[in-house]
């Protein structure tokens, strides 16, 4: 890409979007509209006709279509979310919503999750308008609300209520892929996401006999809940290898010259060293207790106690997940899904994956591209309802010592200017060839 303006704009847009506070505290407490209007104005400035859509007032989504040169080709969805998780200013080196650019780095909440990618999309689209570029296939651009909660006001709403906007889309790209992973020995790995674990956020409710705190009570709801939570937290889930994870392990083993022994996955992970971090969270289901609610006075045994668990399922692992939770919760404790979304898989032998790999390798020839499965989830889950296969592809070239994964929802979230420039170049090249 020779368009210097695009390189300047991606930095400006990232900083500007960070300064628009779109904190999503859950329960509907968020206003994405100012960021949506910002994105829509820049899309309109590129000659597109963006549509702003809301399920709930202020929870705004933006969708626009770029017409390709081949009407017979399947369309591609390129999407990013506008909301961010909360940030406590007192914990940060800079104010999390300052968008400050210091020493070649853009600081603030959303710098990697994922206002940087939103800015890359806007910069590429506007560059194309200046240069008169048209992609081969239609590209649908979507900026969504509510990804950091249930997506009910965002991608879920769009998929359920406005599927016509995504007509022809068979594949999509979004966050959490094609970033630099430094393995500590000089290798630079670029993982492209070709799968996600499913989301199973659980509510556990223990019921018992209320009573005085000084009396013996064999039906104590808090005791029952605590025992169930302890069992869940200590449970060791069995290995379950999906095709994406198998491909990741096989390619990583080849990269390190290690025998790809999938009969001893734990041993293989140990041999991979730091690179095992790309895979180890996705070889099993998981369930992590995160919240507890019980009681109202120290000398009163409550009749009910509640806990919340963040559960994640691999493709094909939900039956095992349900059966295991039934066993671990035990008598006197019920559980239910508070929020649930499907697990995803995408082929790693597709032409689209090959083009993503080629785009990264062109601008990072020293890098090694591998597939991986995300431990968490993205809006690709909701868009999968429309038959759209999702990949994680938000390219960033990062310096050693900057832990990309730790920056997600972390303190002092930031992104180097050079990483944004790399991302624009790679995204531009991929979308031109896709």
Which short descriptors sum up this protein?
single chain, 12 helices, globular, 434 residues, 4-stranded mixed β-sheet, alpha+beta
How do the helices and strands line up, and which of them pair or pack?
Elements: H1 4-19, H2 33-44, E1 51-54, E2 60-66, E3 75-81, E4 101-102, E5 105-107, H3 115-131, E6 139-144, H4 155-161, E7 169-174, E8 181-182, E9 188-196, E10 198-207, E11 211-212, H5 221-234, H6 243-255, H7 265-272, E12 286-294, E13 300-301, E14 304-313, H8 318-329, E15 333-341, E16 344-345, H9 351-363, E17 367-374, H10 380-383, E18 389-392, H11 404-407, E19 414-416, H12 417-433
Parallel strand pairs: 3-6, 3-7, 7-18, 9-17
Antiparallel strand pairs: 1-2, 2-6, 4-5, 5-19, 8-9, 9-16, 10-14, 10-15, 11-13, 12-14
Span from first to last CA?
Answer: 16 Å
Spatial strand arrangement across the major sheet: 1-2-6-3-7-18
The helix content, as a percent range, equals 25-40%
Task: Name the average pLDDT.
Answer: 97
The radius of gyration over CA amounts to 23 Å
Uncertain runs: none
Query: How large is the share of residues in beta strands?
Result: 15-25%
Q: How many strand segments?
A: 19
SSE class: alpha+beta
Largest sheet: 6 strands, mixed
Helix count, per DSSP? 12
Principal-axis shape: globular
